[in-house]
Every structure is written in structure tokens, then in C-alpha cells.
Amino acid sequence: MCRPRPGQRPVTATEAAPGLERATLDKAASENFPVAPFFLPRAWRDDLMAVYGFARLVDDIGDGDLAPGGADARLLGVSPAAAEDRLVLLDAFEADLRRVFDGTPRHPLLRRLQPTVRRRGLTPEPFLGLIAANRQDQLVSRYETYDDLLAYCELSANPVGRLVLGVTGTATPERIRLSDAVCTALQIVEHLQDVAEDLGRDRIYLPAADMKRFHVQEADLGVKTAGASVRSLVAYEAQRARDLLNEGAPLVGSVHGRLKLLLAGFVAGGRAAIRAIAAAEYDVLPGPPRPGKVQLLREAGVILRGEG
């Protein structure tokens, strides 16, 4: 992306910045749920996309999915020699995040985030949680129990919902509790969809205790088609996610107007993804089962009518 043609001077990090920002934000279209749909007020959409840009970039750092060329590292002040070290990059990203609150950040996505933080009175904690989750991904690749996984989701998923409530000015202790249930469910669903991809990164988010209960070995996750034991395990974890979505669904009814549509989209995205996994007979190993738009709209309609 930033590699010069023969005879060209190298593209600087400053020149590459607009392209890096656009490439990161374009990934919003591939999410299980609408990030900043058209029906929201423009100010909300802009601020939600600023938050998404932060969350997407920190995940890309943690997963080693940054655009080639090292422009992100240069923007963060990381030397070329350390540009492949994810922990170094995360530390630099955290330092740049802190400049959002008390200075001028270097990275364009964080400069875009700064007005949102100031407008909405957002605090550093949820952003730091997302960084901590990606730092944990570099150090922890297996989770022994479901409670261990929930603690990870507290860092990796729940801050996103809390930021949505912060941007829309609707945070209350009860809404935060319900939002946490929805966000944890969405994270578990994503883990189920991405079992094969995560294994390729030497990560397993299926609790080891559950794998043992269903007689699943790590080698069983590395084949092209899931056997009966793996399918039973995936079905068990999908039910856990379904229960969490049901627990958090009253969040939708606690708000009004266009925010209600947005939150219904989050819950509907999770439910539709679980239905897609079930339709694949819980065989997630060939690739992530994805719901279609019709299924997503159907689920959203059920939620908005108060039927589920």
C-alpha cells in the first residue's frame, strides 16, 4: 500500500495517514452488526465511527493486521526495528491514547477521536480496556474456564457498549449491566464464528474445561469439518451466548427513537449469527457462518415488536 514504485521516493507516514484511516474505517462494513447506520443523527454517526476507528486499529495491532509498509508504526513513533513487536506497538498506542486526553495525538485515528472524547465527556477507562485485551492476546492464548473467558470479554467487548452509551448520553448503571451482557454475547459469537481463524493465530477461546467435558482435543479444531464432539461444544457455547443476549435484550426497550433501532441491531446481529451457526449444524470449521440481511432484519423486527 505504501511501497514506492522503482524510482519513487518513499511515502511518508504523514502522506499515508489518510489512506490508513480510510482503510481502517472501511472494515466497519464487515462487522456482525451496524456500526454507525444511516438512520442515526450525523453527530452520533461521526462519533461512533471515531470510536470504531480506535477499536478497529487496536485490534489490527493486536492481530498483526496492520497495513504493510509500517506507516502506523512510524506515526506512533515506533522505530522500524520494533515495528513488528505488537507489545511495543500497543505500548506506543496507549501513550498516544493518553495524548487524546491531555495533548495532541500523533495517529490520525486518535486525532479524529479527540473531539469525540471532549464532546461526549468520555473517560480513558474503556479505551484502556480494549488495549489491555489486545495486550492479553499476546500473552494468553488459552482460557481454562468460562469465567476466565468472561473476564477477557470484560476487557475486549464490554467497553464498546459502554462507549456507545457514552456517545449517546444514555449511560446508567442498569443499562451498562445490560449492555455488558449483550457485548459479551457478541464476543462469544464472534469467537465461535472464528474458531479456525483464531487457531491459525494459535489462540483458542473455547474454555479448556468445556473442551474436556465434550471430549474435544485441540487437534479436533484443526480439521476441515467438525466432528460430533466439536459441534456439541459449539452448540453449548452458542446457547450461553443466546442466554446472554436474552439477558441483555431489555436494554433495547429502555431507550427510545433511533437509539432503540441501533441497539436492536446489535442484539439482532448476535441472534442472527447464532441462527447462522445453528443452520450450519454448528460446523464452524470450514469458515465463519454469516447471517444474511433478511435474517438480520427479521430478528430486528422481532425485537422491536417486543416479541423476544
Kindly state the number of beta strands: 0
Approximate shape: globular
- Integer average pLDDT: 91
Topology as a string of helices (H) and strands (E): HHHHHHHHHHHHHHH
Per DSSP, the total helix count is 15
Query: In angstroms, what is the radius of gyration?
Result: 20 Å
* Largest sheet entry: none
- Spans of at least 5 consecutive residues with low confidence: 1-15
N- to C-terminal distance: 46 Å
User: Helical proportion?
Assistant: 55-70%
Could you say which structural class the secondary elements and strand pairing correspond to?
mainly alpha
Question: What portion of the residues fall into strands of 2 or more residues?
Answer: under 5%
Description:
- This protein is mostly helical and 308 residues long.
- Helix content is 65%, strand content 0%.
- It contains 15 helices and no strands.
- It is globular and about 55 Å long.
- The N and C termini lie far apart (46 Å).
